[in-house]
Design goal:
- The strands form two sheets. A seven-stranded parallel sheet has the order 4-3-2-1-5-6-7, sandwiched between helices.
- The longest helix is centred in the C-terminal third of the chain and has 37 residues, at about 370-405.
- Among the domains are: about 1-155, NAD(P)-binding Rossmann-like Domain (Rossmann fold); about 190-205 and about 320-405, RNA polymerase sigma factor, region 2, helix turn helix motif (Rna Polymerase Sigma Factor, Chain: A).
- Strand 2 (about 30-35), helix 2 (about 40-50) and strand 3 form a beta-alpha-beta unit.
- The protein has 15 helices and eleven strands.
- It is of the alpha/beta class.
- The chain is globular, with a radius of gyration of 21 Å.
Length: about 400
Amino acid sequence: MKNLAILGSTGSIGCNTLDVVRRHGDKCRVWALVAGRNVEKLLQQIVEFRPRVAVVASEAAREELRQRLRQIGLPLAQWPELGWGPKARVAAACAAEVGFVMSAIVGVAGLEATYEAARLGRTIGLANKETLVAGGKLVTEAARAAGAELIPVDSEHNGVHQCLRAGCRSEVARVFLTASGGPFRDTPPEVLRGVTPEAALNHPTWKMGKRITIDSATLMNKGFEVIEACWLFGLSAQEVEVVIHPQSSVHAMVEFKDGSVLAQVSATDMRMPIQYALTYPERAAAAAPRLDWGEPRVWEFRRPDFAKFPLLRLAYAAQGMGGSATCTLNAADEVAVEAFLEGRITFPAIAEVVEEALTRIPSRQPGGLDEIMEIDRESRQAALAAVSARSGRAGQSSAEAMQKAC
């Protein structure tokens, strides 16, 4: 029986993880739930799964949760220990009773708890790609030293993990990560300046949070996945290729030195990689739909357009630089995406902001978690300055682009 700490329990990955737990209660149980400010959803999870610990982002959210627990009449003896803030988040992930940590907090906020859990040798289901994008060297070295296992939950890396069970790392020639291409894969580049947040949030395949959906539209998410794959599997950026695959049925492919290619294929259901991580190395029956191999289908594969989606190019470049460049990449992108969602910059300006931040912040090798967080802070400031320089032009540029498109 595995005791789970779920970091980001009220998000998409967290909710899907709890659905898997619901179906495999004989294999795992929830010890700790860590959320942000969605008190109502966390309350429902507490009532159903009865964790020993529940953590929220702020003291105000903890007080709201306490009041709601009283209102619903849950006996005090059945309450979890209530905590708030980063220290409580780390404590939940590092509790002696916890054997498996699902790291699913979006952004760099999940880095510290994941790193500390790795240092203690915990098994980690890694759904937070920013952890390795910002602190890949630190986290993987800590995991290696402590014997911690990092099992990827992103469907692409999970697919690579499964394919690699058929061969040794030394036998691998290339790894292919597939991308749906997002909502603008066939949109002319000149139209992108007039793209609205609503259009960018309309992903053709997956239902995800706002930031990751925008990152999928710009292909930055795939760039982050290239960086993550390098750290997870000991690859160079040149050994990881991205291919556009609109059908999203093939999640990853591994080409071995003899020319053989193994592909991981499954329905587009995040419960499958989540369950794989929770039950590894075993496999169990899953609730996800099966593919009908008697049904005619066409699978397309093509190379991404680096000129149209410059953030993918910047991700490769940042990984090639080494050091803290990928930390800056992540921080600047988070700031730029938020500015786009608020209507302060245009869709193409997301890449402009990120590139400017990479130019302003010199790459260096961080010595520890505190230095990574300082680089993250500096990078955000640089990105905010770049956003401010463009904010006044965003509305005018969007209107002009829409007129040209019409």
